[in-house]
Amino acid sequence: MSVPTPMLATPGPPPGTAAWSVELKFDGMRLMAVCRDGHCRLYSRSRREVTTSFPEVAESIATALHGRTATLDGELVAITSLGGSSFARLQRRIHLARPTRRQIQDTPLEFAAFDLLVLDDESTTALPYRIRRARLESLALDTAGLRTVPVWPGVEGARVLAAVADLGLEGVVSKKLDSSYVPGRSRAWVKSAVRRFGDALVLGWLPGTGAHSRTVGALILGGRDESGGLVYLGCVGSGLSGPARHALRRTLDEIVAPAPDITGAIPREVLAHARWAEAVVVADIAYREISADHVLRHPSFRGIKVDIAPEDVGIPD
To answer: What is the pTM of this model?
Structure first.
């Protein structure tokens, strides 16, 4: 079975009409499960196979499907006590190619399914979302290590977003009930985050001070514009733990590079102390908003992404 190119949501406020359904937005790693003959293979958003990284998830899905052929779209998550998800906890597993039994037990993961693209060898992508969702729910996937993403059809999206904000959850995704599943970004899906989240290239780093003087104090961030040129997005130090600072220093020391050609007004203090690196590391960044000159405001580092190709990182919305 081929691996579909995933459908992507467009950022924006919840549409809030009866023609839409609202789903809880989990904070995890996009995952496609392609299942046949009692076995499942897992693929990242970039369609790279990651089955050996999450063997217990593949087994849970295969068991729940009872041998049926299916392709599921969803999110790999580490669930919190509030029912939300923790990307920081997921980071403990995301880089492990073959986790040990102890690592699997210490960081349990779940697959949160939100769409059904193939069932019993029949493609469902041309069907309206409301029918795909009904067929997904008929599979009763709410078992250990597996759940179906909660949904509120016909409910005003702004009300749901306010409720999830009160619970400290990430946000919601609104989906047009009559929309088919199409690859790439679509306005038929709208993601509304309590905070914005985006990907950024690590262009280099700034040395820390005090206890962090021998390691990374802040990361220099960038993205690519439509012509492929690098654009300065600012620096981030918030969210960097001690272990993360040291791990990033080791990684960036291996990919030292000359100062790149960057568009944007880079502060003098950044230019004076910058240690540049090849633009091949992708960081997951939370931020409040982005300025007119593309600088992220109140950014916070959340982790390194391994399922996004560096050349696909643009400028966050």
So the answer is: 0.70
